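Tutorial, part two.
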Amino acid sequence: MSLSRFFIDRPVFAWVIAIIVMLAGGIAALSLPIEQYPPIAPPAVVISAIYPGADSESLQNSVTQVIEQQLTGLDNLLYFSSQSNADGTVQITATFAPGTNPDIAQVQVQNKVQASVPLLPQAVQQLGVTVAKNTPNFIIVIGVYDDTGRWNNVDISDFIISKMQDPLSRVPGVGNTRVFGSQYAMRLWLDPYKLHNFGLQPSDVNAAIQTQNVQVSAGQIGAAPAVKGQAINATVTAQSRLQTPEQFRNIILKTASSGAVVRLGDVARVELGAESYGIASLFNGYPAAGIPIMLAPGANALKTVDAVKAKAEQLKASLPPGMKIVYPIDNTTFIRLSIHDVVVTLVEAIALVVLVMYVFLQNWRATLIPAIAVPVVLLGTFGVLAAFGYSINTLTLFALVLVIGLLVDDAIVVVENVERIMAEEGLNPREATLKSMQEITGALIGIGLVLTAVFLPMAFFGGSTGIIYRQFSVTIVAAMSLSIMVALVLSPSLCATLLKPYTDEHKKEGRFFALFNRNFDAFRTWYQRKASWFLHHTAPAMIGYGVIVVILGLLFWRLPTGFLPDEDQGFIYSLITLPAGSTQPETLKVAQKAAQYYLDTEKNNVDFVFAVAGFSFAGSGENTGMAFTHLTDWSDRKGAKNSSSAIAGRAMMHFFAMRDAQVYAIIPPSVQELGNAVGFDLWMEDRGNIGHAGLIAARNQLLGLAARDPLLVGVRPNSLDDTPQLQVDIDQAKASAQGVSLADVNSTLSAAWGSTFINDFIDRGRVKRVYMQGDAPYRMQPQDLDRWYVRSSNGGMAPFASFTTSTWKIGPASLTRYNGLPAIELQGQGAPGVSTGTALKEMARLFQQLDNKNIGYEPSGLSYQEEASGSQAPALYALSILVIYLCLAALYESWAIPLSVMLVIPLGVVGALALTYTRGLFNDIYFQVGMLTTIGLSAKNAILIVEFAVDAEKKGASAFDAAMEAARLRLRPILMTSIAFIAGVTPLALAHGAGAGSQNDIGTGVVGGMITATVLAIFFVPVFFQLVNTRLQHHD
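Running the prediction step on this input gives:
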């Protein structure tokens, strides 16, 4: 007894299985996490260290390289990069292969770093070397601003740090936080003349504060062990940390024998200022500060942001009057909307598929049978996703949209064949179903095997590309397996119980169906004549096939390559860089100009602009800045001219005219963990020890070539330019002759120009820091150093000018390395309409034109993954086609017959390439998935014809007659399933708004491929079958 016959006799059993599958899947669907993408980005570990007072070159030689040399033998390490900054900080980022356990990677790196610690300078060892999992991108930025004029940047920053940062950082899922701004600090602004008059130097101030601003632990009265009979026990309190500027002003620095007292207020201006003045923020021109939130590795973005916003709303009640909360960046808005749009597309696809089925089947009972398969298979697929630990994300939802057309195909084949047998042979539904299943069970299994064979190899590829492939593979294979199960178990039992004998209602035709049937019959008659002509003229047909294959090759060669399509995520980054040596007020002025451009010129597309001076993705410094531009809702920005890429393009044209700064408007990549901008990411490497100056010269030459290249735009270094540096040289012989201590010289120099941390104080119950620094008028010019004095051993005051000289030089603000070689990171993108793959090839060509041949390059981030995906695609296509052939050979027990199916594949691929090329899209990962879908569906159509032709031939028909009979019988189900699939996928191809880039990519290829696979296959498959049987198998 066959499986189908078993369930035809037991329809209740079939329903029970379907209900159990739906219940299990429905429960699983409620528990599945929702996210934009699975963890695609490779995990990274960051090593951080501080060497106070070291310049970038000293830091690189004594710290960075020492640690880098230990990073050997790490499992799954892809590449590592480092940055040594002039402020004494170093950061090394090690990136591992996707799928690597980030905790294990962190432990391995930690062990390697520990081996290098004894080799590091003592100051670095004292401050420690930290190793942490990297979370480089912001999932949300919480901004606070004041539009009343009551609060300044420092006030707002202090409130954020004191009241908001800690509660927000404790929200589950938050990995790390930082603040655009700094909290209050007690600032002691020293006057060198007053210090000199009183015979003091900065180290005296430091020592006095250390002794007078201290928390004294005085113990207890009567603490155990106590004398016998002790009757009291009490805590003793003494001096505690100071709290107000007035208390600091009264600190005693010096007492004369006459009783005269010199206090801190006599030599310094004391105020409650900022811990750091390096960053200033503006929101639409108003003072502001912000907290960027980074996601913890493996955390769910939607849940985390919801929790962060809920906590922010709780904290909103404590905001001082005038302060308001805003969210300049919220990536989850795009995530939610893109997922919502895909769900809408899924519903549209289901409705269109059901409509197409009703038009062809022409009665609600027959239409209901394939329609019932939809919830059974979809809910069952959710159960499989839960079992594999997957999530509901855009990739799995795309796969489900593709599956809609596929899963009803099997049920359509069953219903259509039962209807045909009832009409032609007059059998009742049960007998017709039994006969139908005998005829088409092989075809159903063959289709299932082919589609599984297409998508299963995707699950075994590695890297970020493999993670994306696996989402499609697992989802589609699970759905197809369930679809075959439904077609063999549930659909036959439904046909036997729901359908009515043909004479009951099938002869009743409405006007629309009568017209449709007449036209379809006329088309079928025309088709049979043309199919007969093709079978009688196989030579011209095969010449035409050869032309199609040539066109396919040309289109494949011409189609630009990419990794992932750019997406309009609702905001734009503007990177701001001023000439080296520019000050923060100048940077803030340029940031305001950029913000004003967006608010005025693009006012219909822009909600607000949050500008920051002192911070950029390229590095931190007074000459760097960023503007976060939040765009209006996608529904208010319809049309290509109002997309984020178009807005950024217009902004670039405007900013290009700026002479006082470089401003680059960029949009974030589809997967932000892979970088912070769309386009390419390369590292220019010094492979011949040409030195920093040689590397900079090569960089400048390359940037010049790129600026003149019409295929490239926005090519820029992702690092800071070399900056002017004042080199102070101390003549130790002269200093020693005057009895000046080198330690006093260094501490005075640090206090005069730098910001010296002394200790802590208490501000409204919170511990904050105390800093001393020369007051602004005494550190503006090189000659201001001569205003400072150092006490000599005889008690006199020696001016700096007596033992120091200063000279100007140009030095690196930071030094970067890649895989252990001196390197510079370069980013950019292709001109409008130029893919990243083409841009990468163009950059490779420009590298060949460099004068210095010791310069090489390596891709990183998105570009690394793109090159990996490009190298995997041919292997994926070849493997899928091979597995299809082997499955068909096993099914037909023949090496020749599968060729008549395999030859149809180019007919579908050429349509996918043609429509994708026509729409200006690229050969990226989504297109590759669409191509594989097209390959499977092309083979499916061929199987429907070949299966019946093989059966006819076994019954004694000639190859010609078998091909003609199969073509006649299978035309209707082929057209029905193909049109149903095209209808289901069309909403993807026509999507707009959030996430439309990826939807268009995958939908366009599949629609184009299915159109040609259907239109051409119905003519060519009979020809292929006849040729294979007459030429290879030598059948008549």
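The chain has a mean pLDDT of 82. In part three we will examine how such features are distributed along the chain.
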